[in-house]
Amino acid sequence: MVDTLQSLGDWRRDAARQLAAVDSASAEAEARWLVEHVLALTTTQLILAEPKALTRAPRQQLDAALARRLAGEPLAQITGRADFGPLALRITPDVLVPRADTEALVTRALAQGNASAPLRVLDLGTGSGAIALMIAHARPVWQITATDRSPAALACAQDNARSLGAANVVFKAADWFDGLAGESFDLIVANPPYIAADDPHLAALTHEPRQALVAADDGLADLAAIISGAPAHLSPGASLFLEHGHTQGPAVAARLVEAGFHDVATTPDAAGRDRVTGGVLPTQAEISSGVKSRSA
């Protein structure tokens, strides 16, 4: 039975109004993406189909997808897809949705070493593989090891690597450094859980895996564990970079200095908020000369 009261275009415009009313910053685009996903349409096909009336089944499917989004479920989990830099990634409920904030970590990592010389990189807690795969895309001669303790997350990351043809990434099951005995790297990066258990922002993140978000000790426990374990897995002169909450920079920097890192510095994300802190492990020559940790 044809519902002559609403065309596809009318449905999309009404969906955009509802999304805008709940403070969706990209309501028009989200409404279009929902239609394209649910009805498997390209943008051109959507434009041609908009004047046509919706039949009952596709309208029910569209209404169901819109209800999920209005209830706070991330668009990436509804569509199963998210963009991260130049990459299109598959997303499942087992991984965090990659966010633009994390591009600051990738940018900091890519500034290390020589783009044409091999570098051994470790991405701890890879989730969807976003960080490892964006580094691999930009630096095809670097060798990246990506780990996660969640088998489901690793499966998602491996699927993304296959889709992108990222041959320079290997995946391993590991709980931070447990599972990497004897392995050493020139660069370690991580976006670990760093939200405190009582943080009010968690109310908006109920559709994402809590174990990838929340850490003990006011969100600092996993950051501290990585900092303390990293020196045993870094070659002399190698670097460690960590994403963290925008108020955690000083605490992370202090822990890096205590662990013996120097040139410790915090850099902001695109919004100007402190987001990534890292440092450099002394070389053998620096250790021999008694170099002291320093921060910038």
What does this molecule look like?
The longest helix is centred in the first third of the chain and has 15 residues, at 56-70. The strands form 3 sheets. The chain has a 7-stranded mixed sheet with strand order 7-6-5-8-9-11-10, with helices on both faces. It is built from 12 helices and 11 strands. A hairpin with a 5-residue loop joins strand 10 and strand 11. It has 2 domains: 2-71, Ubiquitin-associated (UBA) domain (Helicase, Ruva Protein, domain 3, Orthogonal Bundle); 86-288, Vaccinia Virus protein VP39 (Rossmann fold, 3-Layer(aba) Sandwich). Helix 1 runs parallel beside helix 4, helix 2 (27-39) crosses helix 4 and helix 6 (103-110) packs parallel to helix 7. With 296 residues, the protein is an alpha/beta fold.
The biggest beta sheet is recorded as:
7 strands, mixed
Name the average pLDDT: 93
Task: Briefly note the structural class of the backbone.
Answer: alpha/beta
* Widest beta sheet: strand line-up: 7-6-5-8-9-11-10
CATH superfamily of the largest domain: Vaccinia Virus protein VP39
CATH topology (fold) name of the largest domain: Rossmann fold
Give the low-pLDDT segments: none
User: Which descriptor suits the 3D outline?
Assistant: elongated
What is the CATH C level class of the largest domain, in words? Answer: Alpha Beta
Radius of gyration equals 22 Å
Task: State the order of secondary-structure elements, H for helix, E for strand.
Answer: EHHHEHHEEHEHEHEEHHEHEEH
At CATH level 2, the architecture of the largest domain is 3-Layer(aba) Sandwich
Count every beta strand, where a strand is a DSSP E run of 2 or more residues.
11
- Distance between the terminal alpha carbons, to the nearest Å? 68 Å
Number of helical stretches of at least 4 residues: 12
Amount of helix: 25-40%
